[in-house]
Amino acid sequence: MDNKGKELEELIDEGLDRFNADKYGDAIRIFTKVLQIDPEHLDALYYRAIAWTNKGNFEQAIADFTQAVKNDPYDTDAWMGRGEAWQSKGDVKRALADFKKALDIDPGNPDYKRRVSDLEEK
User: Fold this and answer.
1) At what angle do helices 3-20 and 42-54 cross, to 10 degrees?
2) Which of 55, 73, 75, 85 could serve as a FRET partner for 112 with CA atoms 20 to 30 Å apart?
3) What's the rounded Cα separation, in Å, for the pair 43 and 96?
4) Where are the domains of the chain?
5) Can you give the pLDDT at residue 40?
6) Helix (H) or strand (E) holding 85
7) Considering only the top CATH level, what class is 3-120?
8) What is the DSSP letter of 38?
9) Mind listing the pLDDT tens digit for each residue in 7-40?
């Protein structure tokens, strides 16, 4: 592993430690450093988006999840995360669209089926 890869791995580990300790502001700063080195780092985007969600900043979360699904359109966790952020903002239509996208990718997932059916009933 080269120095850049080692540095990224260490930063990701540090960011996850902060994230798991519910220190979301610290985690966001660390994941932002990772993204400055590697703008398409999926784990950094995903966990930064979740940290933004946990801080109630749904706009930033949606922006990060959107970048994550652009980088990997088959990332069901990112589709579900963005859907949850849309739902938290009260945008059921967009949330349902993202949940359906995750279900299209993984049609056997019972959680995705439940989330789609829950929103379709509203």
Assistant:
1) 20
2) 55
3) 24
4) 3-120
5) 87
6) helix 76-88
7) mainly alpha
8) -
9) 899 999 999 999 999 999 999 999 999 999 999 8
